[in-house]
């Protein structure tokens, strides 16, 4: 079996870290030996291990890690150098985008994984040599672990009759949480919980105070799986206004927990979330989001409908199929 290095740029909480953990556990269950490291904390160790020929394969996530894994792996004779497309080209910094395109075209990446057809489509204008190495392996998503039984409504002081909206992700422009603040203003007495950290923490807090909704906006930081499961159990709806995604893993996790979803009207989210209890709204209209949420709360799906949607979503995004695809890829070289 293969000796595999999973390489990340950093170890900040998020969908990439969740994906790498799932892939690593799945490959180990199939007999592969897997180490997972990140450049930020283990850069020198990673360079030594790849150049020494210790590994048969490197699977890289995030563009800096993919470039380092491809270059060092090629120099060290690692025959399988797989990279994940975790950011669409338009979201990459120009120099990273140019290097990724070059490495894929020249074969420094031996396989390039797109996790959705919509993400693969963003590469349609790339050179044929790059696209020849492209493989579609949709993410498999595990339901969140069992919660600890924490009552988030009680913890946050949210009345049982008040709608509770939840979103999770890095507090950053990509995730577009600012769109939700005028929505929250117009949707009293609803409360909004944002799980995650990032550079917009301060600006979001300040804007909420300016709009007079600071008491109904709750910035709770990064949460582990059990805490997020408890938060989802307390919520009524999951809202996901990202301006771009390559997959949208946390939205799938919310759907698997039985939450109805309101998501940005992006092709990738229409593809990935199709089996869920989901509606879509445009990115340029807070009024449309407010109207959609009012409609969803007034026509809330039954427990049976939400359970059926969660089961359909799980069937569409099973982990075993993803792991089998990676195993075939490792065996093909």
Radius of gyration: 21 Å
Number of helices: 15
The rough form would be described as elongated
CATH architecture classification name of the largest domain: 3-Layer(aba) Sandwich
- Beta-strand content bin: 15-25%
Which regions have little confidence, pLDDT < 50, spanning 5+ residues? none
What do the pLDDT scores average to? 95
Residues in helix, %:
40-55%
Task: Please explain how this structure is put together.
This protein has 333 residues and is of the alpha/beta class. It folds into two domains: 3-140 and 318-331, Glycogen Phosphorylase B (Rossmann fold); 152-316, Glycogen Phosphorylase B (Rossmann fold, 3-Layer(aba) Sandwich), CATH 3.40.50.2000. The protein is 45% helix and 17% strand. The protein has a six-stranded parallel beta sheet with strand order 2-1-3-4-5-6, sandwiched between helices. The protein has a six-stranded parallel beta sheet with strand order 9-8-7-10-11-12, sandwiched between helices. Strand 4 (80-84), helix 4 (94-106) and strand 5 form a beta-alpha-beta unit. Helix 1 crosses helix 15 (319-331) and helix 3 (63-75) runs parallel beside helix 4 (94-106). The mean pLDDT is 95.
List keywords for this structure.
333 residues; alpha/beta; Rossmann fold; 2 domains; six-stranded parallel beta sheet; 15 helices; 12 strands
């Amino acid at each position: 079996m293969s000796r595999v290095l999973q390489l990340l740029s950093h170890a900040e909480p998020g969908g990439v870290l969740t994906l790498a953990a799932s892939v690593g556990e799945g490959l180990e269950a199939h007999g592969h030996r897997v180490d997972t490291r990140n450049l930020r904390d283990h850069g020198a160790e990673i360079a030594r291990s790849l150049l020494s020929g210790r590994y048969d394969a490197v699977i890289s996530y995030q563009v800096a890690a993919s470039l380092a894994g491809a270059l060092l792996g090629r120099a060290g004779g690692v025959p399988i150098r797989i990279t994940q497309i975790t950011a669409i080209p338009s979201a990459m910094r120009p120099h990273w985008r140019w290097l990724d395109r070059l490495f894929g075209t020249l074969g420094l990446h031996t396989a390039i994984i797109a996790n959705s057809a919509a993400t693969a489509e963003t590469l349609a204008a790339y050179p044929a040599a790059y696209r020849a190495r492209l493989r579609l392996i949709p993410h498999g998503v595990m339901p969140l672990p069992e919660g600890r039984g924490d009552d988030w409504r009680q913890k946050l002081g949210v009345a049982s009759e008040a709608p509770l909206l939840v979103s999770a992700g890095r507090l950053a422009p990509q995730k577009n949480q600012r769109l939700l603040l005028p929505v929250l203003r117009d949707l009293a007495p609803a409360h909004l919980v944002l799980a995650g950290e990032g550079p917009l923490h301060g600006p979001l807090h300040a804007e909420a105070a300016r709009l007079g909704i600071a008491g109904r906006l709750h910035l709770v930081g990064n949460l582990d799986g059990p805490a997020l499961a408890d938060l989802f159990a307390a919520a009524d709806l999951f809202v996901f206004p990202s301006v771009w995604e390559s997959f949208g893993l946390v939205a799938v996790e919310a759907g698997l927990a039985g939450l109805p979803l309101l998501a940005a009207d992006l092709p990738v989210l229409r593809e990935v979330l199709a089996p869920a209890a989901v509606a879509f709204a445009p990115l340029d209209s807070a009024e449309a989001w407010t109207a959609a949420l009012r409609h969803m709360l007034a026509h809330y799906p039954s427990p049976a409908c939400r359970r059926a949607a969660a089961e359909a979503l799980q069937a569409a995004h099973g982990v075993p199929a993803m792991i089998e695809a990676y195993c075939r890829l490792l065996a093909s070289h």
